[in-house]
Structure formats: structure tokens, C-alpha cells
Amino acid sequence: MALVTLALQAQTQPGSFRVDLPPDAPVALVSADWGTSRVTARGGALLLELHSTLQLKNTGARRIRAVSLLVTAQDRTPGGRASVTVPSLDIETSDTFPVHIDLRLMRPLQTGPGAVVDVQLDGILFEDLAFYGPNRMNARRSMLAWELEARRDRKALLTVLERGGAGALRNELIEALARDSAQPRLAVQAASAGRATAVEPERVVNLAALSLPATPVELLSGTVRIAGDEARAPHVVLRNVGTKPVRSIEVLWLVRDAQGREYAAGSLPADVSLAPGQTGSASKEGALRFSLPNGGPASLAAMTGFVSSVEFSDGALWLPSRQALRDPRLLGVLPPCGEEERLMELYRRKGLDAVVQQLHKLR
Amino acid sequence: MNPHAHHPEQSAIALLAGGELAWQESFSTRLHLLLCSRCKRQFELFRADRIELGDVTAAELRQPTVGQPGAEASAWDDLEAELRANIRLGLTVGSLAPGLAPSDAAVEEDADDLPSPAPYPPWRWAVVCGALVFVLTAGWWLRTPGGSSLPVASVPAWELPTPGPAAGDLGMQVLLPVANVSRTETDFDGSTRSRVIDGETGQVTLQQVYVE
């Protein structure tokens, strides 16, 4: 017990949290407030509850659109690493901006030297879509996908504004808010692999493959093992039907319960190497457990999947068009894209003018 | 006396666990718990649940939200902003109901253009004033000393963080500020991703905890 106390004392001293940015980085740390962050012992591990606001400054010459930080408590411990990304920024040279960190991480209980938590830069995306950083957690892909989706959605909303005026834009936002609030949702938790908690026997279910227009990678088939409220070990077969080699894809899942209701269930990002015309597969271990909003177990009947993004070997990205995502089958089930949801929330909190201002500013 | 003859209601035990049972009932229920192991077990379970929930909510609800603009912003401020946003949206949607508003102008801008309503007769004002005086008097009379935390407890449940990966107690997860819109996804490998939108500044934060 004394050892644990000593270890905690040593690891909660000032300097336990370190922000380490490369000297040539186009951002600099202005201040770091670790607020009510705390470290507690849990058995043989330390539970780190991080609440921090870092103030960063754009010291480069280009406008910053997104920043990603890597937060490491322990590289090899499950739950010891996290990334924090701030997209949809518009930071001019010399401007400062906050990055909020609210995470719970784990690390083994030890008294070795060094900081308990290390914050490092993983990447920066600029206005011209150029990228800077080590990209250890594939920040470039996620930031670029967000930015391209955001540009697509802002452009669509700006078109609505220019063609139909403020009233049309307002109606568009209200419809999106109504769709979002009416959307059925399931709570999803990772389930321990191999644990048989479901009463129903496990069965292999063929995945219903949905193909969006102009997709460069087709989802040919797939399987998932379903038992009651659990789905495990998804396996998909894909074919590159485009002209460029592909290095990663993301498949979005929809689950249907025994009552026939469909829910968005998450995504399956996977690294695949597919030359044009080539067929390959991707699979994941592990299981997910779905529960209803009232906490009761969901009874899963079927799953549907579709390719929602493709990263080519040259770093370019394919994303479905807004029109494709308005397919009636998807419209009431998929959550709004990130930028659309941000603008919806701005409208709800600040009114239409705030949204119009954003659309003009970031056009 | 047979202690098992009349077990207290579950709700009474739950209220007792939360320290919210009236003192007369509290006395008799406590007495029963001394004699009835089954009800005592139930009481302990409720209390444990409450402590567990308290871990998640209390700090987030009663303390300033870290990282908000102006760290002194309290949970009540967040709740107020949330209520205002919903009222604004409700008014907008209400005004868009067929026949009640023009089709393409913003509600805020249109408010000044609406025809003035007919003046109310004086007796209506008297009734309204009388009702207001009654409500204020009743409120003052029934006020709860030190009860300022009550409204905070009514923060909608959907804003609480969704459970993290299966690790449970040993869980690593993103901690979602109460007042912000958030969405959480869990991958098959147990990684957790969240998207948090600060409604006041519009800033988005994407957080991902890796297990591999």
C-alpha cells in the first residue's frame, strides 16, 4: 500500500503530464491546463483521468484546418493510447486555439522515470490539404476525410441558401434535426471474445451488401456471427472496381433487430491492399453487444454493410456523394456527417445567422 | 413482530439509499432494514448503484466543465444554454406550422411583422397576477433549504457518457462533457471513438482510445 502511495505521489507531481511538440512544427504550445486531471491506482494499474485544455498557436505560414494529437500513457497497454483530433478549424497564422482532452487511460503501476502522460503531435492538415506530422495513428486519413466531407456538405447547404434563401436553409436544418432526433439508436459495447452470455445459439449470418453509386470498391459478400444481442468476427470480401490501387477502406454497418428496425451500428476500418480488379478480404476479431435505449438487450436479426470511404495508394480519398447518402434506405438510419451535425448544433444554439456566417467563412 | 410481514416498497428503499425519504418513513424503513436482511441487501445495492452513478455524474454535473470557455462555467450554465437552444428550436418549429407563419423568412426577423394581438380585458390581468402571487408565495413557503442541486439532477440521461469498452471498471474511455452533443462508436476490437461538439463555440473534438 505504501508503495502504491509513493508511486502515485511520484507520478502526480508537476511534470507528470508532458506536451512534446517538434521544434519545427507549425504549432507551438502556449499553455497547458491540466485542470482536474487525476491518477488513481486500480489493482496493478494506474487509471488516468485526463481533463486538459492545451492552447496552441499557429506559428506556420498556412491556415490550419485540423490538428491531431497523440496522447500516450503506455504504448503497449490496451487502453494506454489515444488520439485527440480537432477538425473544422480555420486558424490563421499567429492565432491561438484550444484543444480539449477528456480521456480515461490506463498504464501499469510503476515508478519508472518519465512523464505519466505524453502528448505529441500526430498531424496537421492545412487549408490546401497538405499534411504535416508523423501520422502514427493515421491522422491524415481521418482529418482529410472529415475535411472533404465538410466541404461537400457546406457546399450543398450554401447551394440551398443561394437558391432558396434563408428560409430554405432553415428548413433544411430543421429537417436534419428532426431526422436525427427520430433516429433509432442502440448502445454498443465491446463484448469479451468467446464469452457466451447470450441464451440464443450463435449463427453465421450473411451480410447484406449495399453498393453506393460510383464506389471504387465493391462489397461482394460478408459474414458475421450473431448470437442474441452480440455480433462477432465480421468478415467481408471486397473487389477493387476502380482504376487506382487501394490501401484502406471503411465499411459502415447497419443492424436490423427482430422487429425489423434498422440502426447504424458503427464502422469497420481496415487496411487492405487491392490493385485494380483485385479481390481481397478483411476481417476483425472481437465482438460487439447491442442494447436498446432502455438498457434491455437488442435481438439482432441481420446486418447490412456498405463501403463508406476508400483511401487510394497515392493518399487520395473517395467518399460517397451527398446524394448517394440520401438513399431512402440510409437517410433515416445513418447519423448526420460530422460537419452537418456541427452546423445543426450551431443553428440550434446560435440561430441561422451563425450557420450562414460559417458557410460564407469556410466556402 | 415478524419483520418480513410488511416489506417497504422498493421505491422507499431506493429513496432511503439516496437520502431522499421523508423522516417518518425513513425511521420506519431503517428499523425494518435492521431486522430484514433481504431489504438491507436491496438497500446496499441501491446505494452502490448510486455511488457508481455518482462517479460518472457528480463531478461533471456539479463542477465546472473543464475546457469550456471560461472554466468557471457551471453545469447549470450548460443546462441553461441547452434549454435556451431547445426553446429557440421549439419556437422556430412552432412558428413554421402551416398557416401560422410566412414560408421563407426567419422567425426572429418576422416577429416584428406579426399583427398586434387584441388587448386583454383587465380582469384577465387580475387573474394572471393573482396566480403569479399564489405561485410565488407557495414557492417561498415550500422552498427547500440547500436544495440548489435539485435542478441539476434533471439533466437528460442521454447526455451521460455511454458505457465504455467491456473492460468495465478497468475501462479506458473518452469522458464526454455533459453539456455537449456527443456520439460514441465502439469497434469490434474494443477501441472507442467519440465526436463531441461544443455547442457554444462550434468546436468539434474527435477522441479515440486504442486497445491494440
Structure description:
- The complex is a heterodimer of chains A (363) and B (212).
- By secondary structure, chain A is α+β, with helices and mostly antiparallel strands.
- Chain A folds into 3 domains: 2-135, Immunoglobulin-like (Sandwich), CATH 2.60.40; 148-173 and 340-361, no CATH class; 187-334, Immunoglobulin-like.
- Chain A is built from 6 helices and 20 strands.
- Chain A has helices at 2-11, 139-182, 322-325, 328-331, 338-350, 352-361, and strands spanning 17-20, 27-33, 38-42, 45-58, 64-72, 81-86, 96-108, 117-126, 131-132, 187-191, 203-206, 208-209, 217-227, 230-240, 246-257, 262-274, 279-283, 287-291, 300-312, 317-318.
- In chain A, the strands form 4 sheets. In chain A, strands 10, 11, 13, 14, 17 and 18 form a 6-stranded antiparallel beta sheet that branches. In chain A, strands 1, 5, 6, 8 and 9 form a 5-stranded mixed beta sheet that branches.
- In chain A, β13 and β14 form a beta hairpin.
- In chain A, α5 crosses α6.
- The longest helix of chain A is centred in the middle third of the chain and has 44 residues, at 139-182.
- Among the domains of chain B are: 10-62, no CATH class; 159-209, no CATH class.
- Helix content of chain B is 43%, strand content 10%.
- Chain B is built from 6 helices and 4 strands; from the N terminus they run ααααααββββ.
- A 3-stranded antiparallel beta sheet of chain B has the order 2-3-4, with no helix packed on it.
- In chain B, α1 crosses α3 (37-62) and α2 (23-35) packs across α3 (37-62).
- The termini of chain B are far apart.
- At the A-B interface, β4, β6, β7, α2 and β10 of A face α4, β1, β2, β3 and β4 of B.
- β7 of chain A pairs antiparallel with β1 (173-174) of chain B, so a sheet runs across the interface.
